[in-house]
Write a structure and sequence with these properties.
The protein has about 70 residues and is α+β, with helices and mostly antiparallel strands. The chain has two helices and four strands, in the order αββββα. The longest helix is centred in the N-terminal third of the chain and has 14 residues.
Length: about 70
């Protein structure tokens, strides 16, 4: 899988989770899957995988870490 493919999938996951306002959080593609960084606890069901790859959830990040992504 190429880097551009993983970036596209991370972007699609961010769209799916509505993480497009630049404040709530963001998604990063890693070698093994995806990491979802969030400012607060995420309500509802958390995805365990996206496009067959594992999703790791990292919650309660400081505002400074999500700003400017």
């Amino acid at each position: 899988m190429g880097d551009s493919y993983m970036r596209e999938q991370a972007e699609a996951l961010a769209q799916h989770l509505r993480l497009t306002d630049g404040k709530t959080g963001y998604v990063e593609a890693t070698a093994d899957g995806f990491q979802v960084f969030l400012r607060r606890k995420w309500p509802g069901k958390q995805l365990a995988s996206w496009d067959g790859l594992p999703v790791e959830w990292i919650e309660n990040l400081g505002t400074h870490m999500t700003r400017g992504r």
